[in-house]
Design brief:
One of its GO terms (molecular function) is FAD binding. By secondary structure, the protein is an alpha+beta fold. The protein has 14 helices and 28 strands. It starts with a strand and ends in a 10-residue tail after the last helix.
Length: 535
């Protein structure tokens, strides 16, 4: 049977376009369907985590993104978020920026329309088919592939693809069509007005209240938050207190009255966007059915309070792309197990983020003065501690029960560090050298200082062919410029680590002689071992 593409992605937002670029980097044919005729021109997501920048760096997009879409504001404004109580007192100062595992800032600012233009241009340059003004109406999973029916200007067309991924947002038609069960996370169900503002002249923004600080004002009279944007943008979010206010959310006079208290006026600012949104959270109980998968907001909806919605979706794409690659290259393997592990890894992580975000909403949105006083006292004593998004959920595709055992549990299944490596005359980070397509085996030199092959010949061959594996001995032909990796090995008493293409740790070993067994375990874990492999 002839298929229109290997993978059909529904939705051309950041998640869908990133997944398309990742799959294309493996050499697969990808089509993206998008119902909108053009990129949505107004801001949405503004917070970007370092591990997401690392994904795009691996796709060769760093310079383009930082020219127009992404900004590093560390050092120009506060690295802390201030939680402000009912009486205007600062209850907590929560670090949100600083050094990261990647060796860069922990968080960046984002202008989403510019991001989507960069990603879309990259797709066009890499021969990824993007079809706009095409709205999906039905998705059918069959034994060997999936069918997608979509309506465009010329009528309904059918696509045949080996896999379909719904990246079509919180109101996903793919999710509804395939009847994925969705669980709402109960919360306060509040409605907020988000206002994005641009200064009219240089120096105007610096005079606005909260310019140098991100703050969450838990004022029972009107909870609101100040949020950093890219250097020429600022965002404020205000809780709407009544049905009347919700109806007035599009009224310019009402919007100006809210931001006037912050020093903004038509004389020094232009409102780029104002829109009301209802806070919702929830997730699908499973992210795959046969040849159909979900990612991003189609799979789970994270309220805005922790700024992790877009980041969670890109993590979905990063953890999914290499699994789809293996499923396409080895269709007779047990690829359904890989997708089940992906589902549990991702849901295990986002569950806690969503619950933490909903819990924060419940605290921030208290409008009773006496309750707010009690809340402030409790908050100052027991602040929320959201789950670390750099740790995969469990169970997952990583080896907790191998090598160093319990002492390595905080490393295995976690995002690996990145640092500067000099290989030959080229210096860069791991993502610069190896991209996002390879399993990577890092190891220190053996006791005599040599860098002999750490794998048996048969496993080395499988590692190279099946996993596109690369081996990097630290200290001989590859120089650890700032001793980042050497210090990591020392911290865990390790001599070797196996990394997945998404930069998460599969497993670590105490002795280099254990690396063959670790790689063999990974291939078995994937259902891709020895004679079971068929091209």
């Amino acid at each position: 049977m002839r298929y229109d593409c290997d993978v059909l992605i529904v939705g051309a937002g950041p998640v869908g376009l990133t997944l398309a670029l990742l799959l294309s980097s493996y050499g697969h044919r990808v089509t993206v369907l998008e119902r909108h005729a053009a990129v949505y021109p107004l801001p949405r997501a503004v917070n970007l985590s370092h591990d997401i920048v690392r994904v795009w760096d691996g796709l060769g997009l760093h310079d383009l993104l930082f020219e127009s879409a992404v900004a590093d504001i560390r050092g120009t404004v506060s690295d802390e978020v201030e939680i402000v109580g009912a009486a205007g007192q600062v209850l907590r100062r929560v670090p949100y920026n600083g050094p990261s595992k990647t060796g860069t800032s922990r968080t960046f600012r984002l202008h989403q329309p510019a991001l989507e233009k960069v990603l879309e241009t990259a797709c066009q340059q890499r021969d990824i088919e993007l079809v706009r003004s095409m709205e999906v109406e039905n998705v059918i999973d069959l034994d060997s592939h999936a069918e997608v029916f979509a309506r465009g200007p010329s009528g309904v067309r059918k696509w045949l693809a080996l896999f379909v991924v719904g990246c079509d947002g919180a109101n996903s038609l793919v999710r509804r069509s395939m009847e994925f069960a969705f669980t709402d996370c109960p919360g306060s169900n509040t409605t907020w007005l988000v206002v994005d503002v641009i200064p009219k002249f240089d120096g105007a923004a610096q005079k606005w209240k909260d310019f140098y600080n991100a703050r969450v004002h838990m004022n029972p009279r009107r909870p609101h938050a100040s949020v950093f944007g890219t250097p020429q943008r600022r965002r404020w979010e205000f809780m709407l207190l009544s049905e009347e206010e919700i109806r007035k959310a599009s009224d310019d006079e009402f919007v100006w009255s809210l931001i006037a208290e912050l020093g903004c006026s038509p004389d020094n600012a232009r409102i780029e966007k104002s829109a009301a949104f209802s806070v919702k959270g929830g997730w699908c109980e499973n992210l795959n059915k046969g040849h159909v998968l979900l990612a991003g907001d189609a799979a789970h909806v994270t309220p805005t309070f922790l700024g992790q919605g877009l980041n969670s979706g890109i993590r979905d794409a990063n953890c999914l792309s290499w699994r789809i690659d293996l499923a396409l290259r080895y269709p007779k393997s047990n690829w359904s197990r890989m997708f089940q592990d992906w589902s549990s890894e991702r849901l295990g992580g986002v569950h806690e983020l969503i619950k933490a975000s909903v819990a924060m909403e419940a605290r921030v949105t208290i409008t009773d003065s006496e309750q707010a006083i009690r809340r402030d006292l409790e908050y100052s004593q027991r602040p929320l501690a959201p789950r670390n998004p750099e740790k995969l959920g469990s169970p997952g595709m990583y080896a907790l029960d191998f090598g160093l055992g319990v002492s390595s549990h905080d490393a295995v299944g976690s995002l690996f560090i990145d640092g500067v490596i000099r290989i030959g005359d080229r210096q860069g980070r791991l993502c610069d050298h190896f991209g996002c397509q390879s399993w990577l085996l890092l190891h220190s030199l053996v006791d005599d200082g040599s860098s002999r092959m750490p794998l048996s010949s048969d496993i080395a061959s499988l590692f190279s062919v099946v996993l596109n594996g690369r081996i990097l001995p630290i200290g001989k032909d590859s120089h650890d410029v700032m001793d980042v990796f050497s210090m990591w090995f020392l911290k865990y008493g390790s001599r070797g680590v196996l990394l997945r293409p998404d930069h998460y740790v599969y497993g670590i070993v105490k002795d280099i002689d254990e690396l063959t067994t670790l790689v063999q375990k990974a291939i078995q874990h994937l259902g891709l071992f020895g004679g079971q492999l068929e091209d």
